[in-house]
Specification:
This protein has 125 residues and is mostly helical. It has helices spanning 14-27, 40-47, 51-63, 81-105, 110-124; strands at 67-70, 74-77.
Length: 125
């Protein structure tokens, strides 16, 4: 059984779920540089989804430089994880900025926000 999954009840398109899931697995070290991804037909069969959906996700991941494909051998995790982490951090900080502005506009106090931040960092240890 693969660690790659999708939720058919999710509103997000399945190919986007696959992309996000694989990115997350790479960022968390579950999939390491050089690891081979399941074949398109194998994964489609496991997840009971159309192989074209898997191929679309793999194509987008390859376009982003997260995976690479060797003709006749399969798709593998690329070794530029640092770049993916950097992009993910920039995206996360932009989302955080948006959320903080919304909280501020909604009347959240600075101490409330800082308490939430401290709680997250404390849970990390």
């Amino acid at each position: 059984m693969s660690v790659i999954s999708v939720d058919i009840r999710d509103r997000k398109p399945i190919y986007e779920q696959l992309i996000d899931n694989i990115k997350s697995l790479v960022l968390h070290g579950v999939l390491k540089p050089g690891d081979q991804l399941p074949g398109v037909r194998t994964l489609a069969s496991e997840l009971a989804i159309n192989p074209n959906t898997i191929q679309k996700s793999y194509t987008e991941l390859e376009r982003c430089g997260i995976i690479y494909t060797l003709k006749g051998r399969g798709s593998f995790v690329a070794d530029n994880i640092g770049e993916l982490s950097k992009i993910q951090l920039e995206h996360s900080l932009a989302e955080l900025n948006t959320a903080l502005l919304a909280a501020h506009d909604a009347g959240a106090s600075k101490s409330t926000v800082l308490t939430m931040i401290d709680s997250i960092w404390r849970d990390e240890n």
